[in-house]
């Protein structure tokens, strides 16, 4: 069972997230789960992300359309994701952090 949950909010940053997932896989020794919340990205970005995460069995993706923008949308998404945590430890990973 994973000990770590990683939370990521996506808004048109699929390539950054996929890069981060590949790096996490290389450097992380403990089991972990990644929850990605898509905040209404362009459909081509969402499709890139959906197809890219297929090779990861520990990544879950949800999409929600919202009228919120900016920091409020990001915070609302993190609040939703925080309810998914069922591990002793968690981390928030900005989608453009590499």
What is the element string, with H for helices and E for strands?
A: EHEHEHE
Pick out the low-confidence regions. Answer: none
Rg estimate, integer Å: 13 Å
Tell me the major beta sheet. 4 strands, parallel
Number of helices: 3
Kindly summarize this structure in a few lines.
This protein has 98 residues and is of the alpha/beta class.
Describe the structure.
The chain has 98 residues and is an alpha/beta fold. The protein is built from three helices and four strands; from the N terminus they run E-H-E-H-E-H-E. Helix content is 38%, strand content 23%. The protein has a four-stranded parallel β-sheet with strand order 3-2-1-4, with helices on one face. Helix 1 packs parallel to helix 2. It is globular and about 35 Å long.
Comma- or semicolon-separated keywords:
98 residues, 3 helices, 4-stranded parallel beta sheet, 38% helix, globular, alpha/beta, 4 strands
Please render the helix and strand layout as text.
Blueprint: E1 4-10, H1 14-27, E2 32-38, H2 43-52, E3 59-63, H3 70-82, E4 89-92
Parallel strand pairs: 1-2, 1-4, 2-3
Helix pairs in contact: 1-2
């Amino acid at each position: 069972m994973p000990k770590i949950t990683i939370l990521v909010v996506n808004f048109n940053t699929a390539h950054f997230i996929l890069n981060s997932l590949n790096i996490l896989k290389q450097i992380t020794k403990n089991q972990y789960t990644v929850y990605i919340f898509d905040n209404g990205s362009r459909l081509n970005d969402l499709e890139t992300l959906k197809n890219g995460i297929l090779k990861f069995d520990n990544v879950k993706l949800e999409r929600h359309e919202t009228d919120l923008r900016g920091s409020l949308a990001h915070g609302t998404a993190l609040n939703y994701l925080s309810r998914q945590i069922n591990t002793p430890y968690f981390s928030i990973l900005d989608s453009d952090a590499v």
